[in-house]
Amino acid sequence: TVSKSFIQKTDAQRWANQTEIEADQRGLSPNQKSLGLLTVSDLLTRFKDTVIPSRRGQAVETFVLNAFLRQDLAQTRLSNLTPDAFATYRDQRLRTVRPGTINRELGLIQHIFEVARTDWGIPVTNPIKAIRKPNADRARERRLSGDELERLLEALKRSRNPLLGAAVRFAIATGMRRGEILNARWKDLNWQLGTLHIPETKTGVPRTIPLSIEARVVLVELAI
């Protein structure tokens, strides 16, 4: 199957007639034949098995791809794939998840199509580039107010994880992300300068942050 979208019906009919003539004269091109043998699932599975294991976000990305592989869209052959199919998927997902979530999903799959095209030599057009991405949620700016911090810390004392309270206090004091806190190492701490070096960040750029008095108090409590 070969498909293409047009605004005018006459243009579509003209293209269809010409395509049928070319197919009768010399058959489908090698590119179309190769795309007819592969599905979206083939690309995603190959990426999941060969590329993701070396990426920092492998756990999350594997979860995202496994969920998408259960969709009917994953079984679509590349020769039949159109942007409309992903636009429909986007609209269906927006009924149950936030725009930021679907944007991250589509961003990962769009990247896989680019890898397939540039690194694997698969002559596929990236369908996600042609669809509109939903507007992401505005960044959260809210801070704890009133007695919310006190009540939060009191509730954390009842947690089965004795380190959870310290992690939350440290996050509030430093603004560090959860992954950065969990990956922090004592060897990256400079007590004299009062700084903590973060070699691996979400953006891929290492950074060193100054530690407030509260952050140092938390570290001292953990070190005792």
Count of DSSP H/I helices? 10
Strand content: under 5%
Helix and strand run: HHHHHHHHHEEEH
Number of strands: 3
Features:
single chain, 224 residues, 3-stranded antiparallel beta sheet
Structural description of this entry:
- The chain has 224 residues and is mainly alpha-helical.
- It is 52% helix and 4% strand.
- A 3-stranded antiparallel β-sheet has the order 1-2-3, with no helix packed on it.
- A hairpin with an 8-residue loop joins strand 2 and strand 3.
- The model has no long low-confidence stretch (mean pLDDT 86).
What topology emerges from the helices and strands here?
Blueprint: H1 9-26, H2 30-37, H3 40-50, H4 58-69, H5 83-93, H6 99-118, H7 148-156, H8 164-174, H9 178-182, E1 189-190, E2 195-198, E3 207-210, H10 213-223
Antiparallel strand pairs: 1-2, 2-3
Provide a short characterization of the protein structure.
The protein has 224 residues and is mainly alpha-helical.
